[in-house]
Amino acid sequence: MKRKLPLFLTAAVAVTALALSALPDPSIDQSPFQTHFYHTIKAAGLQDLTPKKLDGPDGPFNPEEVSVPWRIRWNPRRWYLHTSATAPVGFPDGGGEFQWAHKFGDGSSSPFVCTVVYLDGRASFIDIQAQANSATPAESLRSALHREFPGLPIKVEVHREKT
User: Fold this and answer.
1) What residues form DSSP beta bridges with 117?
2) Burial of 138 from C-beta contacts in 10 A (0-12 / 13-18 / 19+)
3) Coil, strand or helix: which one is 131?
C-alpha cells in the first residue's frame, strides 16, 4: 500500500497539470485592455471618482488588496519566464502582479471600487466591491465589461450595511 501512494500522488499531479494546461487564457494585454476599459466605463455612464491626489479632499484612497483565485494565479501562461522588451507604462518594475483600483459612480448612489488585477502585464481578473445602494451600477458595469471582455473573470461583491 505504501508503495502505491507515491505513484498515485505522481499520477494525480500529472493529471492536474494536464487539466490546468487545457484551460484557456482569458487575460488581455494591458494596453488594449485599458483603452477598451475606459470606453466601457464611459458607455456605462460612470464617472471616475478616484481622488487625483492621495491627500485630496476625499482623503486617502487605499483599497483592500484583492485576493486572486488560484485558477487565475496558476494559469499555464504563467508557468514560464516572461521577458518583455519594454515594461508596461505605469506598472512597477518587474511587472509580476499589479492591482489597479478606482472608485466609480453614477451620481445617484454611493461610489464603488473596481480593481483590475494585472499578472505579467496582462489584465487577468476584475473585482468590483459595492455597498447595497450601489449594487445596480456595479452590476451594470459587470455586464458591460462582460460584453466587452467575454472571457475575463469578473467578480462583484455587494456588502450589506451593518446594522
Assistant:
1) 99, 125
2) buried
3) strand
Q: What is the distance of C-alpha 35 from the center of its chain? A: 16
Angle among Cα 37, 35, 134 to the nearest 5 degrees reads 20
Q: Give the global pTM.
A: 0.71
Q: DSSP code of 76?
A: G
Length of the chain: 163
DSSP β-ladder status, 122-131 and 154-159: parallel
- Distance, in Å, from the CA atom of 79 to the CA atom of 87, rounded to the nearest integer, reads 19
Q: Where are the domains of the chain?
A: 27-159
| pLDDT tens track for 39-69 | 999 999 999 888 765 444 554 566 778 887 7
First-to-last alpha carbon distance for the chain, in angstroms, is 56
